[in-house]
Amino acid sequence: MQPHTDTGHPRRWAILGVLVISLLVVVLDNTVLNVALKAIADPAHGLGATQSQLEWAINSYTLVFAGLLFTWGVLGDRAGRKRILLLGMVLFGLASLISAYAQTPTQLIWARALMGIGGAAVMPSTLSIISNVFDPRERAKAIGMWAGAVGLAVAIGPVVGGFLLEHFWWGSVFLINVPIVLAGLVLITLLVPESRDPKPGRIDLVGVVLSIAGLVAFVYGIIDGGEHGFGRFQSWGPIVAGVLILAGFVAFELRSDHPSLDVRLFRNPRFSAAVGSVGLVFFAAMGTMFFLAFYLQLVRGFTALEAGLMMTPFAVAQLVFAPRSAAMVRRFGPKLVCAVGLALVTLTLTVYLFVTATTPVWVLLLLAFVQGVGMANVMPPATESVMSSLPREKAGVGSAVSNTIRQIGGALGVAVLGSLLAAVYRDEISGAVDALPAGARDAAAESITGAYGVAAQAGPAGAQLIEAANSSFVTAMHWAAGGSAIVGLIGIGVVLAWLPRHSAPHAPRTATPEPRELAEVG
């Protein structure tokens, strides 16, 4: 029997804490934004953004993030993961400042894209460094804590955002990133060791351009279709173009000897199922959070802080269950743990089909808790399955694949479910706004936020419009929840069909310096 040789870094747990701080600022931002959507849409005190512009404010970040993860992963392998992590934090902090003081929705969208460039450098670096400083025997626990931090940020973001919006202007939800970035930069410099891949790959610029162009065109068509209908060339044309560009991307990657996305990895059913489950659960979750932001603050009349506090049970569930998921996987295997987690998420999404404008608050809190438990038991086993299938020095590839699919899943969830929400809402409210003047009719039919704005100027007749808008939105929300639940069911099928019943051993590590040696590189 081989003796146990601990190959972990002596400061690995302190390093994990620093990496979690770095990760928090990236994940926190999107969830903070969710609770600020109503404020940004406010024409009087915000930017007057339309629903499609709000979707782009979310997706400009996620699409750029997803498209550049592989490039930053390769740059980290080549130039040093610590250096890339520091650079990403600086870019993210600067873009946060620009976002906070944006004067138009278009400026905000472009600033968010710049934030995506920085965030794409941070995310894979954190997971790559974890895989290099932890022994394989401890890696599952460390990744469980890392995934728990993702879930925690998803949950505390709305609370932080709500508190800021109660006391400051909407830009404060971006300004809060700056002190976290500064603290992260100091701690990374002091504690995190440098590491590199001894045989780094080349950067696939063609692949990066094709992937971003294809995703942006595809998502643009979906969002435009939700706003104006899919019968227009401006909607289905970009969708077709996006699909063709993405098909060209796959063909190019198959022939490339340095692909930004090694699509051959997806021939491995275990790898594909793990990555697919992550993408599907975030498709459902991010789309759901988009419509919940408007449901809670408009239909239910909660303040931004109250709406944020409604996600506290989600945070509690993440804190309690995510760190324990690794032990659950060892006992029951990744297939069962991941399938049960997805089933819990799907159950909550199904229950949203029956939520109304008067559903008791305790039901909404319970749904948030159950969804948190479910997601806490999807991310860790899926991420660990991805990471353990690759050699340690190729950790950047595994983390980039997992996080790219997660971001793409979230972006498509916001785009597809947001467009479904807009289309159904527009159809439902059409009869109630026919008598309004043209400009007011278009604004009220565009989104529930627009309807509330029109109602505020309509005097006594505004109450009837608000009632119609709330009813139309709840119906549209049911359709979006149903779409989310279907995606959750697909995820369960993928996991049951292809994820392994038992944990597989970690992929062997090829010849490369130990983490202690890597700490002295560069």
UniProtKB/TrEMBL annotation:
Domain named Major facilitator superfamily (MFS) profile: residues: 15-503
Kinase recorded as keyword: no
Main location: membrane
TM region(s), chain numbering: 12-36, 56-75, 84-103, 109-130, 142-163, 169-191, 203-223, 235-252, 273-296, 302-322, 334-355, 479-499
Compartments (UniProt record): Cell membrane
Membrane topology: Multi-pass membrane protein
Protein name: MFS transporter
UniProt organism field: Luedemannella helvata
CDD domains the UniProt entry points to: MFS_MMR_MDR_like
Domain of life, per lineage: Bacteria
Keywords: Cell membrane, Membrane, Transmembrane, Transmembrane helix, Transport
Cited NCBIfam families: efflux_EmrB
